[in-house]
Design goal:
Layout: E1 7-16, E2 27-36, E3 42-51, H1 56-71, E4 79-84, H2 87-102, E5 106-107, E6 110-111, H3 115-125, E7 129-134, H4 142-157, E8 165-166, H5 169-174, H6 178-181
Parallel strand pairs: 1-4, 4-7
Antiparallel strand pairs: 1-2, 2-3, 3-8, 5-6
C-alpha cells in the first residue's frame, strides 16, 4: 500500500500531574506536527492544550481529537503517521474500536470508558487515513520527548495553543542533554511504505444501547 494523500507526521503525548491520586489532577496534551512542502522543506508546528482535572487516558484521546481537528480546518484529506507512546490509543484505534462500534459502542462486559471521547476521536480521523505507531516513552526519542515536553508544560501552566503554531522544536533540541541530542530523529514517512489502518465504519456516534 502507499499514501493516497499528502503525508503528515504527528508525534503526540499526554500528561496528568498526580494521575490516580486524590484531589485535582491537571493534565495536558502535546503534539509535534511535521509537513513536507513541495520543495522538500520540512515544516514543523506545535499544538498543546490542558484540562484542570483529568486522566492520562482522557488526554491521550484529546491528543488525537485536537490534532486532527487542527489539521482538518482547511478540509484537506491527509495521510497521517501518528506516533504515540500510548498503547491505549494505538491498541484502541487498531483493534478495540471496531468491536465496540459493532456492539453499539459497548464492550463485551460493559460500558466503554471515555466513550464520548472515543466517538469524537473516530469522527476526527474520519476524513483522513492513518498509520498508528507506538514508541516507547521516556526513552530519548527526540520527537516523542518534545511532545512530552509540550504536554507536561501545558498540564503545569494550564494553557493552550488554540491550534497549530510554529514549532520551537529546534530551539528545544539545542537545550537538551547529550542523551537526547545524540538520538537520530525519526525520518519523515515515505509514501510507498505508508500502511494505513483499515477505515472504520462511518456511524461513529451510533446511539448507545440501553
Amino acid at each position: 500500500m502507499s499514501a493516497r494523500y499528502p503525508l503528515v507526521a504527528v508525534y503526540a503525548d499526554e500528561s496528568c500531574l498526580g494521575n490516580g491520586k486524590s484531589g485535582a489532577t491537571p493534565g495536558g496534551l502535546g503534539a509535534l506536527v511535521e509537513f513536507r512542502k513541495s520543495d522538500g522543506t520540512l515544516t514543523r508546528f506545535d499544538l498543546w492544550a490542558s484540562e484542570p482535572d483529568t486522566t492520562n487516558n482522557r488526554m491521550a484521546l484529546r491528543s488525537v481529537i485536537d490534532t486532527y481537528r487542527a489539521m482538518s480546518r482547511k478540509g484537506n484529506r491527509l495521510s497521517v503517521q501518528f506516533t504515540t507512546d500510548s498503547r491505549y490509543i494505538v491498541d484502541g484505534m487498531t483493534s478495540w474500536v471496531r468491536g465496540w462500534m459493532a456492539r453499539g459502542w459497548r464492550r463485551k462486559d460493559g460500558a466503554v470508558e471515555n466513550v464520548e471521547l472515543w466517538q469524537e476521536a473516530v469522527e476526527a480521523i474520519a476524513l483522513h487515513e492513518t498509520q498508528w505507531l507506538w514508541v516507547k516513552g521516556h526513552a530519548g526519542h527526540p520527537q516523542n520527548e518534545y511532545a512530552n515536553h509540550l504536554a507536561t508544560r501545558a498540564a503545569a501552566t494550564q494553557d493552550a495553543s488554540n491550534g497549530l503554531v510554529p514549532s520551537q522544536f529546534d530551539t528545544w533540541m539545542q537545550e537538551q542533554p547529550p542523551k537526547v541530542r545524540s538520538q537520530p530523529l525519526s525520518g519523515f514517512p515515505v509514501a510507498e511504505r505508508f500502511v494505513p489502518s483499515p477505515a472504520l465504519p462511518a456511524s461513529s456516534r451510533a446511539r448507545l444501547e440501553s
